[in-house]
Automatic annotation (TrEMBL):
Residues 150-186 form the HNH endonuclease domain. Keywords: Endonuclease, Hydrolase, Nuclease. This is HNH endonuclease. Transmembrane segments: none annotated. The keyword tRNA processing does not apply. GO terms for molecular function: endonuclease activity. PANTHER family: OS07G0170200 PROTEIN, SLL1193 PROTEIN. InterPro entries: HNH_5 (IPR029471), HNH_nuc (IPR003615), NA-targeting_endonuclease (IPR052892). It comes from the Bacteria.
Amino acid sequence: MSVSGRPAEKRSFTEPIPEVYLAAGLLERAVEQHIASNYKFAEDLFGSADLMVLWDWANSHWDRRWRSVVKPHVDGLPTANSLDGREKARMPSKITRAEVLQRDGYHCRFCGIPVIPEEVRKKAHSLYPSVVRWGRKSEEQHAAFQALWLQFDHLVPHSRGGTNEVRNIVVACAPCNYGRGNFLLNEVGISDPFLRPPVKSMWQGLAQFVKSR
């Protein structure tokens, strides 16, 4: 805890667990096998990436039953704005999302893990529904696709008057996005992600899978 009584700043609520990168590697291999028309091998790899320990880690950020993230009560800070005081559009435009992706790449700007666009998961679910499960409830969702789900996160939340401008949007994973909810960064002790450069790697969010047959 800092001298001011607020949490000491860190880059994310929790550090990524090793299974995050294991699952990303399995999904990457699954996509490679699918593109090579080795569909049974691809199916096995997609299924292997559905790791329960990864599901537990992701859900610890938002599920009250086993949440490991403790959000402080903060007095004297702005509450949610009225609907009239914020932008009507909840999410940034396609052009803005493309600019943010160009700047940030396919890694969470907070914890740094690789992330995967929703369209990749949708295609995997449509082609391999028996192993890439995806239901409305969290426990019905494939662990890797849930934890690595690419989000466009508002640094100042939309409900707090945040805009859809590029400077207020970052690429994030689902745990970092949903874990913070409507809190400002300083309210939960998370440092400004622009204080450090984005992760640079060859990871492109498995975009090649969407383009494949």
